[in-house]
Amino acid sequence: MTLPMNWNEWAQHDGVALAERVRKGELTAQELASQAAAAIAKVDPALSAVVELFEDAIDDPAKAGADLAGPFAGLPFLMKDLGPTMQGRLQEMGSLLMRGNRATSDTFLTSKMRQAGLNLIGRTTTPEFGVCSSADNPAVYVTRNPWNTDYTTCGSSAGSAAMVGAGAVPIAHATDGGGSIRIPAGVNGNIGLKVSRGVFSLAPHLSDLSGLVSIQGCQSRTVRDTAAFVDACRGPAPGELMPFWTAPEPYQDMIKRDPGKLKIALSHQWGDYQATPQIASELKKAGQFLEGLGHHVDYALPAVDYRAAFEAQTTCYISNFAVVISNMLAARGLEKPPADLIEPVNIRIWEAGRHTTFAERARMQAVFNTTSRGFGAFFEDWDIILTPITALPTPKVGTTEYLTISDNPSVLDWFGNLWRNFAFTPLANLCGIPAISLPMAQHEHGLPLGIQAQARQANDGLLLQLAAQIERALGGQWNSGRKPGVHATNG
Fold it and tell me: pTM here?
């Protein structure tokens, strides 16, 4: 098969650049899809990140639903196997229980993606129901990090992060209920934005308000790709339960300007959880870099009860996931989770959460309110909070303490262990504030380390402006210009 580009040329283009070449008639959407499929075939045997490719979408993007007149002009796009559904396509959610589960319709956001010109060419790996930190269950699949295949991609947007990091596609779908866009972006060398609550619709399922924490988004390699994705796909479905934020101008225009001088707070300890000294030193270096761009940088953090916040977040996850699993069981006529089809920790989450009372949820929501208002008060004095994306080094494949195949008998202890590593991401979900992971730093074992910036509600544009300013200052060379060992340009 003759491809339209050599691999270096393919990897040098972001999604916006590829779409522009289609609009100019230099390439076709079908040629882009064929090149993406070839790239996936090249890197995926080492990574196990793609569950399925859709041959009809590769052969004929327009017939498969991509609006070639949209801003992305048929750009190949991988969908995480969780969240928005695609009519007639399988969605198996990383679970043996869901094998053969086929969607009967597109969700609202899927339609927005197609209208934006994205060509949905396949689906990527995720841990079972998106619950744990890695797509790492030998009974289903084991997704590996392109920088070093001994290590995990983290999750839950595992496969999407690996494919973007490996240069197979420039942008891919991701979701974030507690860091699942930002954490894998941080450990795979990508950009990952969790938008504010009230940007992307979950219709016809829960709203951002009733679902509380889960947000849609993408993984990308350039700030403008993420900005273009948000511009094209944001907005409410008819009859949303809650108001949606609007932007004063398209983010693609906003990011062309640097932000003004910002007050940026650094923090590497949130309550009981703190980063290793090496990770804290990487955060300090990032702060010094931002000082060099003219920003005011110092150490500070919101005055909130972090222990109570993490307890409330844990209650939210346990009760939410218990309902999700109960609904799946009811649809199959099952009274309890089959031990051979659902992973052990997810069974224990169901057992712990299925009888959660309204009073318990009300106490949880009260903590959500006080925590969110504490962050809001903090942002009266500061523009940005900067943290590492993780507190500990990236785990190796098979580190079961973070996985839902763990034999830990205590759900609360299992979640507490997650927070020890992933402390800095979930409270943004609790508060509904935007947060972005940027590939600015490095772990001591050589893998990328994302630096996270968080801002007040609806200040997503400021995060993207800051990210674009950093990108320009780096000459576009995220990850210090390094690329992973498994990459489309290799071999």
Answer: 0.98
